[in-house]
């Protein structure tokens, strides 16, 4: 497929992100089951609900733009990040070491999403897609706060272990 302009690039990235979020909805329940710390498991479950909302929001973004439709495609980067998360689970036993690894793996996903939604927001702004931009900015905010929450959890878990 040839991408000729900013609008086509936006459509491409929107479709890629839609697939990434779908992959994440399948991965988060596994992360929640693998986690030892109940707060961490709860954080994954909470973000699963948020992610389902984010998928609906992507539909709304497409609906707000008459000639843009989400295409079927695979986000290879997300596939790789999730695969590494699974490798980590396979290589560890349930406990604080695995939890630390799960937080790291989840934060890689969040950072990827923050970069993605940042780009989508910038493109939407450039293209004058105001409603789309506002919707995408809401998701960007959720991804950033998820990342912050994971950082806090990492600190709490380290303190628990030390104490
Ligand atoms: Fe997301
Ligand atoms: Fe996320």
Give the topology, please.
Blueprint lengths: L5 H29 L3 H26 L12 H16 L4 H32 L2 H33 L1
Helix pairs in contact: 1-2, 1-3, 1-4, 2-5, 3-4, 4-5
The chain binds fe (ii) ion (2 copies).
Protein name: Ferritin-like domain-containing protein
Organism: Vreelandella nanhaiensis
InterPro entries: DUF892_YciF-like, Ferritin-like, Ferritin-like_SF, YciF
Short synopsis of the structure:
This protein is mostly helical. The protein has five helices and no strands.
Task: Describe this entry's structure for a reader.
The chain is mostly helical and 163 residues long. It has a single domain, classed as Up-down Bundle (Ferritin). The protein has helices at residues 6-34, 38-63, 76-91, 96-127, 130-162. Helix 2 (38-63) runs antiparallel to helix 5 and helix 3 (76-91) runs antiparallel to helix 4 (96-127). The protein is elongated. The chain starts with 5 loop residues before the first helix and ends with a helix. The model has no long low-confidence stretch (mean pLDDT 96). InterPro entries: DUF892_YciF-like, Ferritin-like, Ferritin-like_SF, YciF. This is Ferritin-like domain-containing protein.
